[in-house]
Inverse folding.
């Protein structure tokens, strides 16, 4: 293993990154990982690097504007070993093979001091301005990091800039384990000056600081105590835990020597000289903890936003989530949507499964988008089906209208896609069932797994209605309470509905009047108000057993209307004569 260390014209312009063995990486001002954004003399992509067999090969790209210097001479293609360096612009790049090894100390520290977070926060900096200038960059350091590894690099650079007396600094983590003996990982480390010796953080110090949730200082040398130095180049070290669930087990580890004059070390007997450094690390840890917690909340909010409408998200933000999400009985409107055509698309896309996955994801994403857009909650996914509901956690007096608008928007988008063969949604159809009634909604599940959903007969009914769309040849079906609301409260220029039939679904004893939800006439001109009236007159006659009259009314409905085929075929199958004991209910034999 080897690291490349970049050091610019200022102490803060620095990073240390691991070179992947055998892989080519690019070095430049605007590259993915080995970026040097502070030096404008370095091109966006300046050189290619390959670390292999203890040697780093560096090749200057032809597009690079400025030369690369090795031992004072311009070189375009060369190799270096550990301890050697090259220069581009104002930045020096050093190859290092010194390693970090967490180890248990062989000797006890001469002095040990614990500092609580509260004590360090109350203590005043002796040189506040320089420290605060570094800390002011911390929010940008965290927000600008694209990954945890990049965050580690930036944090250690900032820590070294804020503690100039430190020799080395590391971001460490103790893994959680049931017996409390999880391993100690070094997420990233660096030092002020390049040395050939390895870095040996004290495992005992790290574990004690995290266990006590306090900053712990160990001093191995003091007045007359040089023989007890744990490492010949280290006089002291401290570890500051980063408290909070967002940084569980994390800590800053910093080590160094006391005041130096040339190569001689002047021992110090008072470890309080390090209190400013401890305070700086504590403030950095507290800031990191707060910002990581904020990021964690933002990530949770982003995950919630996939399932909750903005209205629901606002309710969560303004109250205790355990209270807001607590299961309770309420009236809800449930929409169950199944995307059809998946099996056929699977056959056609057997050699392009990733493409099929992309199309299915697009279809499901479209469905959930319209549910959320109308203030609903996405309650569940079942294969290529989606369940959404309205009326929880906040009451919604217009929940039926919102559910119907979502269903019509899904239908309209699929119809538009069917007109364009290259659209990802082309080839998909849909069936939607909408039902309204009492249910238990909230965070429901077991100890091991919970989810925000809705539970009750109304959910099963919505699913049954969706299944019946294939039998009744209507894309959106409503139960009676939902249809009644639409007739009374939704203008015809927004949505229309017609009663289709009274059926007894397979496995159920109670008859169900089923209605179809239709777009306004301006969006679906096939059926006008007279056609709808003729169909409902046919249904009334059909229910009463007057099938000849019903047949006449059905013939006044356009032949292109597939929903009327359900009654027309049923009448024809029975030779236009109601069976004995006819009660107006059609018994369905399949779900």
């Amino acid at each position: 293993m080897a690291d490349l260390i970049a050091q610019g014209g200022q102490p803060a312009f620095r990073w240390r990154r691991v070179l992947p063995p055998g892989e080519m990486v690019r070095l430049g001002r605007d590259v993915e990982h080995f970026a040097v954004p502070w030096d404008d003399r370095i091109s966006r992509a300046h050189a290619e690097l390959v670390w292999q067999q203890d040697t780093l090969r560096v090749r200057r790209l032809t597009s690079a504007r400025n030369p690369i210097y090795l031992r004072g001479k311009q070189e375009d293609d060369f190799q270096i070993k550990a301890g050697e360096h090259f220069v581009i612009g104002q930045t020096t790049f050093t190859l290092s093979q010194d390693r970090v090894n967490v180890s248990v100390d062989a000797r006890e520290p001469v002095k040990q001091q614990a500092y609580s977070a509260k004590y360090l926060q109350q203590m005043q900096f002796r040189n506040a301005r320089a420290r605060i200038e570094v800390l002011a960059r911390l929010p940008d350091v965290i927000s600008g990091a694209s990954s945890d590894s990049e965050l580690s690099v930036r944090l250690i650079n900032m820590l070294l800039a804020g503690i100039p007396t430190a020799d080395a600094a590391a971001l460490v983590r103790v893994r959680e384990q049931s017996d409390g003996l999880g391993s100690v990982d070094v997420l990233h480390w660096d030092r002020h000056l390049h040395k050939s010796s390895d870095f040996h953080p004290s495992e005992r110090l790290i574990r004690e600081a995290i266990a006590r949730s306090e900053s712990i200082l160990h001093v191995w040398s003091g007045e007359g105590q040089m023989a007890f130095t744990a490492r010949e180049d280290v006089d002291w070290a401290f570890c500051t835990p980063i408290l909070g669930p967002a940084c569980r087990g994390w800590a800053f580890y910093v080590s160094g020597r006391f005041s130096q004059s040339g190569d001689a070390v002047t021992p110090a007997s008072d470890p309080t000289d390090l209190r400013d450094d401890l305070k700086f690390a504590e403030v950095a840890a507290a800031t990191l903890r707060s910002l990581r917690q904020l990021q964690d909340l933002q990530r949770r909010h982003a995950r919630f936003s996939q399932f909750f409408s903005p209205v629901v998200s606002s309710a969560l933000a303004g109250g205790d989530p355990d209270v807001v999400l607590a299961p309770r009985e309420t009236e809800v409107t449930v929409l169950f949507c199944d995307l059809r055509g998946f099996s056929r698309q699977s056959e056609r896309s057997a050699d392009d499964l990733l493409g099929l996955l992309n199309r299915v994801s697009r279809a499901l994403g479209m469905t959930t988008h319209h549910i959320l857009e109308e203030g609903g909650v996405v309650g569940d996914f079942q294969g290529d089906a989606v369940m959404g509901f309205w009326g929880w956690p906040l009451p919604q007096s217009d929940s039926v209208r919102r559910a119907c608008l979502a269903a019509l928007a899904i239908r309209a988008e699929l119809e538009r896609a069917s007109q364009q063969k290259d659209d990802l949604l082309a080839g998909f159809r849909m069936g939607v069932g909408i039902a309204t009634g009492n249910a238990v909604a909230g965070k429901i599940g077991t100890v091991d797994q919970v989810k925000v959903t809705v539970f009750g007969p109304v959910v099963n009914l919505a699913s049954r209605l969706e299944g019946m769309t294939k039998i009744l040849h209507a894309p959106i079906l409503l139960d009676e309470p939902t249809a009644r609301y639409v007739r009374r409260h939704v203008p015809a220029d927004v949505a229309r509905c017609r009663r289709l039939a009274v059926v007894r679904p397979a496995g159920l004893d109670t008859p169900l009047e089923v209605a179809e939800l239709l777009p306004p006439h301006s969006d679906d001109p096939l059926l006008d108000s007279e056609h709808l009236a003729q169909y409902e007159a046919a249904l009334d006659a059909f229910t009463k057993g007057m099938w000849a009259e019903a047949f006449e009314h059905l013939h006044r409905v356009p032949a292109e209307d597939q929903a009327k085929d359900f009654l027309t075929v049923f009448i024809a199958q029975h030779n236009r004569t109601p069976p004995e004991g006819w009660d107006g209910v059609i018994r369905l034999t399949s779900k």
